[in-house]
Design goal:
The protein is α+β, with helices and mostly antiparallel strands and 222 residues long. The protein has helices at 9-17, 19-27, 37-54, 67-74, 133-145, 174-194, and strands at residues 79-88, 104-113, 117-124, 151-158, 163-170. Helix 5 (133-145) links the parallel strand 3 (117-124) and strand 4 (151-158).
Length: 222
């Protein structure tokens, strides 16, 4: 039996950037994943912050610039969850991240549960960008996980600058917010069912895309 596809923010983001790139990287796996120094740094920072908040582990000297963030988080009167795995089924009801019925999943870097409200933070080690779609999906998964919570505050924490870009969501918005994701998820599923993956020209094509046989790739044939 074919394993059903599970949606996520990263998968939808890649698919909308370029369906062909999505197929080659995620389905055919013809483009090997290369862990860049930036990616490795991001993973290491996430792990260091997780252990510092969850286990009170001291930060390595490489990450000591983030001690103030850890101290502020540790001082709040809330239940903290680190790297919280979240999932919903096709009815958008809470399910386990690894459940066979999981339809959409995500991982929240830090969730602070105040009882009647939730604060969720997403650590970002790269340069600040616009858009809050990942926060929206995180909020939807959290509403399913915490059914009594009426309002969720989220934010990207841009660790390079120390700035936050916050967004807040209310439970009555749930249906409206899911509409932002339903259409792209249906389009991805149509491509999966029909095995049709058209390339879409984007900012990575000229120098950075690993799909070298694509008509838009600037390094094609080199």
């Amino acid at each position: 039996m074919k394993k059903p596809f599970v949606h996520s923010h990263s998968a939808l983001e890649l698919f909308e950037l370029c369906p062909k790139k999505f197929y080659e990287e995620k389905i055919a796996k013809s483009v090997p994943f290369v862990e860049s120094e930036q990616v490795k740094w991001g993973l290491d920072v996430h792990k260091a912050l997780e252990l510092a908040v969850k286990d009170k582990a001291p930060l390595d000297k490489r990450y000591e610039m983030y001690q103030e963030i850890v101290d502020r988080v540790s001082s709040v009167q809330a239940t903290a969850y680190t790297e919280l795995k979240l999932g919903v089924n096709r009815d958008f009801q809470c399910c386990d991240f690894f459940d066979s019925t999981c339809y959409v999943r995500g991982i929240a870097d830090l969730v602070l549960d105040y009882g009647d409200k939730i604060a969720a933070l997403d650590w970002k080690t790269g340069k600040q960008k616009h858009g809050s779609r990942q926060l929206t999906l995180m909020a939807l998964l959290l509403f399913a996980r915490f059914p009594d919570v009426q309002e969720i505050y989220t934010a990207y924490v841009w660790l390079q600058s120390g700035k936050l870009t916050p967004e807040s969501y209310k439970r009555e918005q749930i249906e409206e917010l899911w509409e932002l994701f339903i259409q792209p998820m249906k389009e991805l599923e149509w491509c999966l069912e029909n095995n049709v993956w058209h390339p879409r020209e984007n900012f990575l094509c000229r120098n950075w895309c690993g799909v070298l046989d694509c008509m838009y790739n600037g390094r094609r044939g080199k």
